[in-house]
Write a structure and sequence with these properties.
8-stranded parallel barrel, binds cytidine-5'-monophosphate, 47% helix, alpha/beta
């Protein structure tokens, strides 16, 4: 794989406290990163201005707000995500088929109205912070984690979604049930030269995740906390580019 191809796979988690911190990173990294993920922390602090600020520097945005509500409410949020011009956003597959279908329909019709491309819409299946015990004892789900992940990924696909967020361990099973046109976005990435996994439990290196079939890898702290974020991103790109 070339470094240019590797860049198309890298998504930076903008888990920072302010627009100015985000903009500093976008400026340094926009030539190395394909997507900038804005999640709860930055969006709760700064709101849609954070999205507009990243876009003003040419960055494409993955809005990671994991919508999960009644279909009508999620449809309204999906239309607003379209109005913000985000490249990608996500919903919880646990909201059910009707919620996911309605989100896709609302995004599609708003995109037609605005004459803009419809965002890529992906689903969260089972949060990677949950394990088999929690699934059974707290959520009363009588399936293994892996069965539940593939069930919800298939439901997301049948509901018209474009892909899922998945841990590196789930990529192969999801490819098996949802095929190769289905986008898989994978957090929990730790480069081989980093010793701590922070709070991530099931990690993979950038090359491992892409080799297993991830379309995008989401990387936060290995770049955000690096002394030289650009050099850390370059090293990650080289790690991916060694793949054939
Ligand atoms: O710093 P780190 O590389 O662990 O950041 C991973 C990012 O991916 C964070 O923004 C986190 O919220 C997000 N994420 C995750 N696991 C999921 C879904 C999203 O780590 N299952």
């Amino acid at each position: 794989m070339t470094t240019e191809d590797a860049k198309k796979r890298l998504c930076l988690a903008l888990d920072v406290q302010s627009i100015s911190d985000a903009l500093r990173l976008v400026e340094i990294l926009r030539d190395r990163v394909s997507l900038f993920k804005i999640g709860f922390q930055l969006f709760t602090k700064e709101g849609p201005s954070a999205v507009a600020a990243v876009q003003s520097l040419g960055g494409r945005v993955f809005l990671d707000l994991k919508y999960h509500d009644i279909p009508n409410t999620v449809a309204g949020a999906a239309a607003e995500a379209v109005n913000m011009g985000v490249y990608m956003f996500n919903v919880h597959a646990c909201g059910g088929r009707q919620m996911m279908e309605t989100a896709v329909e609302a995004a599609a019709s708003q995109s037609i109205k605005n004459n803009t491309p419809r965002p890529v819409i992906i689903a969260v299946t089972v949060l990677t912070s949950l394990n088999n015990g929690m699934l059974a004892n707290e959520l009363n789900v009588n399936k293994t984690l892996s069965q539940q992940v593939t069930h919800l990924a298939s439901l997301a696909k049948a509901s018209g979604l474009d892909g899922v967020v998945a841990s590196p361990q789930e990529i192969t099973a999801i490819r098996g049930c949802c095929g190769c046109g289905f986008t898989i976005v994978t957090p929990g990435i730790r480069p081989p030269w980093i010793n701590e996994s922070d709070d991530q439990k099931r990690t993979a290196t950038p090359a491992e995740a892409i080799g297993l079939g991830a379309d995008y890898i989401v990387v936060g702290r290995p770049i955000l906390k690096a002394e030289d974020p650009a050099a850390a991103a370059d090293k990650i790109l080289r790690d991916i580019a060694q793949l054939r």
